[in-house]
Amino acid sequence: MSITEDPTRGESVGDAPSSKRLLGLSEATSGRLRLLVKKARSTWKIFRANRMGMAGLALLLAFFMMAIFAGQIMWILAHIAGWSSSYGPFDRVAVVGQGTAPSEQHWLGTDIWGYDILARTIYGSRVSLLVGLVATAVSMGLGTAVGLFSGYWGGWKDEVLMRVTDVFLVLPWLVLMIVLATLLPGGPSVTKVIFVIGITGWSSTARMVRAQVMSVKERTFVERARAIGAADYHIVRKHVFPNVFPLVFANSILTVALSILSESTLSFINLGPNPTQVVTWGNMLEDAVNGHAILNGLYLWIIVPGMCIVLVVLGFTFVGYALDEIFNPKLRRR
Amino acid sequence: MVRKIVNSVITLFLVIIVNFVLFRMMPGNPVNVMVPSDPRIPSEYKEKIIAEYGLNDPMYVQFVRYIGDALSFDFGNSFSNINTPAMQIVLENLKWTLLLAGSSSVLMIIIGVTIGVLSAWKRGGLFDTGSLTFSLFFYAMPTFWFAMMLVVFFSMEWKVFPPDSALSYGTKFAFSVHSIVDLLRHLVLPVISLTLGTIAEFVLIMRSSLVDVMTEEYIVTARAKGLSEMQVLRGHAVPNAMMPMVALIAITLAFVVGGVFQTEYVFNYPGIGWLTIEATYSLDYPILQAAFFLIAVVVIIANLIADITLIYIDPRVRLA
Predict the structure, then answer these.
(1) pTM, entire model
(2) What is the ipTM of this complex?
(3) Which residue from A185, A264, B65, B112 could staple onto A282, CB 3.0 to 4.6 Å apart?
(4) In B141-284, which ranges are continuous DSSP H helix?
(5) A160 at B interface, C-beta within 8 A
(6) Residues B136 and B284 in one domain
């Protein structure tokens, strides 16, 4: 591929005159769509060869299934094991005050509030994953916007934005999250946790996008677009952004892992959503500490949600690293 | 270099502004933000706070006064310990944090760099795969959870080390054998937790940086002129690979601070992290502000030192 060609645009779309139009879309759109599918397919081909990436993907699929079909899973388990009924995460199934050891009825036992630990763990995947994904979307959106703007326009705007980015980059994220979560009005809630994680996590993305934009904008295809009179907005949207996007995508998967860890940490120190209304793995652990799980010997109450966090984060990290190896030009070179 | 210093000063100034904005301009009455609406707090105290901080003055007057206070490290008295300045309490807790973070950082750097070097050197080998799995596993593990697991096994099941605090209950540190042994016994689990909880960063950064360096042509040259592998590593590869390590200190420091907070909280270790989290429960804003500011200052200075060091050790940065 010559350097004058914009790698994201591939062979020019009009070159395939005999192509069938997809879904009744216009020639150009369907061509672009076909190109996208082709790209996705070739990426998948490389990805499939990556053992670590595939292991991560399998882990993630399992946990997403668990989150989506939490109710059904409990129902099926109840039928197979012959429980008296299927338990929800907020059903008090035992006496409050002391947990019970694992039994036929409650495979992982119950916690001291009388909740079934297995049910809580399975349902807990929902909010844990949701917070991870949405918070990542927030921080990636913010980071990409700042990075694009700063890298493309440069000058004093860049200078100002980068100083602000520095503040967020330099301050340890956990400290900032703690202060924000404490000071923001309103009680602890899922929205607040998402906001806090999103607002503290964008700075490294902004740095990375900015660096990438600065190198992309010097390339000849951008110069060519500018020479034929393309507006800045058009160049950013059609040439710069598509070239930055794969890197952002790979990075955002790694960020989901960090966001899930952040959520669990915030919940753990009592700054997350209230465990009687919302269940996440993080606030199960918070509950476990407040309920003296260690002193009461209810180790499963700690071990199981913790292992879930480890496995999900590993899943995202594996997939993220595998994608990074595919998309990151620096790594591909070797 | 002047530019770096100027940038750090600007960053510091922005932190001061953020600190001000966060604590004074949150939606709602600043008085309510500064003084939590807790019925246990007497109204005379509220009046006193308002007078002391001049919370009814115009915002710009408050801002100017605030900057003066921040530069002299004065954040007022703690709410829960009314007669002690917040900064004094924070500084008292700092020594424990420094002990914990300092001893683990040394271990982290030594172990992390060694593992990173060994795995990058034989990339793709058995050791590399093993150490990568180990690092990613610990990377994925919440530090607080790892700390709890340590308590479960080493304090509860096997009763080898005490589960919490920095010294035996009710004792104060003295320079006696007994006291020092006690201190070390209490330090073991938190140090293990913090070290293993954060080491993955070091290993991964060191490894990828060295892998990068190993593909450079000067390594080929070094090998071609007949140097042994050890000489290549020691003389050419590792020194060059250390530079990204220094450059990335901001990120690694953030992880260390995060790890410190979680570890201190689980072990009730009386450092800054524990203090800050406790302050969020009692809504002790002066403590929160002082701790936030102090951590920011320390981290910014550390980064500045790293940047300046980089200028001295890396000619590419110096010439750029």
Answers:
(1) 0.85
(2) 0.83
(3) A264
(4) 143-150, 177-214, 217-224, 229-232, 238-247, 249-267, 272-282
(5) no
(6) yes
